[in-house]
Amino acid sequence: MENSLRVIENELVPVYVTDTGEKVVYGAELHDTLNVKSNYREWSARRLTECDAIEGEDFQAVEISTPSGQKQKVHIIKLDIAKEMAMLERSPKGKLVRRYFIEVEKKYNQQQCMISFREQVECVGVVANILRVNDASKIMMLNDLYKTYDLPSSFLPKYENNGSREIKSATELLKRFDLGMSAKAFNILLVEQGYLEERTRRSTSSESDMRKYKALTEKGLKYGENAVSPQCQREVQPLYYTDSFKELFDVVVRQEVA
After folding, report:
1. Which of 33, 127, 213, 231 makes the best surface tag, with the fewest CB within 10 Å?
2. Nearest C-alpha neighbor of 60 from the set 45, 78, 42, 72
3. Per-residue pLDDT of the chain (258 residues; tens, 9 = 90+)
4. Is the pTM higher than 0.90?
5. Closest listed residue to residue 75, CA positions, set 91, 57, 100
6. Is the CB of residue 141 less than 8 Å from the CB of residue 123?
7. How far apart are CA 192 and CA 194, in angstroms?
8. DSSP letters of 150-219?
């Protein structure tokens, strides 16, 4: 363990991290910082016993060479036990060291959290590329990730905007433009004319149960995009460009009349 230690903080007491990510301190360095009157051997034996520390689990005893060439037994102690040992001093310095350990732990955990967050952001990009979803779907996936980490996401574009083009459901756009047709009837025309298709997927509750959903075809993608459904990310839902929806409606209705 000793050869794999790396210093992560050195303001009051050096704090190290092992190759497995465990935060530890040297007992001798903790003893010196606390200005303990008794010698290290007596103090460490007493405090480790009082903390119910288990060798091999909470601390590790190692031998180091002193400048005189003699061997000295010291301990590599996990940070949780080191906090208890500092608290047991019942002195201003002990309280200071304990607070210092708490802040170090908080700082290090935040750094690890941000590393994990960056890795997951990269994963979102990889998954989005594999699924070939549109930018609106990527935004939705990132927004969900930010919520998981309780981070603000107001800077992200709105889900229903892809670049400068607004995209909405057929239901909303039919009502907005007062086109006098239900989404159900419009979808039937879109399917008949090849702009929309019906797809199926297996249910998560039963392998034999198939779920149906609609998606834009290659022909339909001129007028919109397939976005990952907010209700089920195993499905897509068609969203239409607001600026070209009337054109699509006129084309579909004109072909139906013809």
Report:
1. 231
2. 78
3. 555 788 888 889 999 988 888 899 999 999 999 999 899 999 999 999 999 999 999 999 988 766 666 777 889 999 999 999 999 999 999 999 999 999 998 888 777 766 677 778 787 777 777 766 667 677 777 777 777 777 777 666 555 555 567 888 999 999 999 999 999 999 999 999 999 999 888 776 666 678 888 999 999 999 998 887 777 767 888 999 999 999 999 999 887 665
4. no
5. 57
6. no
7. 6
8. T---TTSPPTTEETTEEEE-HHHHHHHTT-S--HHHHHHHHHHTTSEEEEEEE-SS-TT-EEEEEEE-TT
| Cα–Cα distance list, 228 to 20, 63, 141, 170, 211 (Å) | 38, 59, 9, 16, 15
CA atoms within 13 A on the CB side of 136: 24
Q: How many residues does the chain have?
A: 258
At a CB cut-off of 8 Å and minimum separation 6, what does 4 contact?
Answer: 18, 19
- Reduced to 3 states (helix: H, G, I; strand: E, B; else coil), residue 229 is coil
Torsion angle of the four alpha carbons 175, 181, 186, 189, in this order, in degrees rounded to the nearest 10: -150
CA 48, CA 27: separation in Å to the nearest integer? Answer: 10
CA-CA distance, 237 to 17, in Å (whole number)? 48
The conformation of residue 36, written as its DSSP 8-state character, comes to -
Amino acid making up residue 254: R
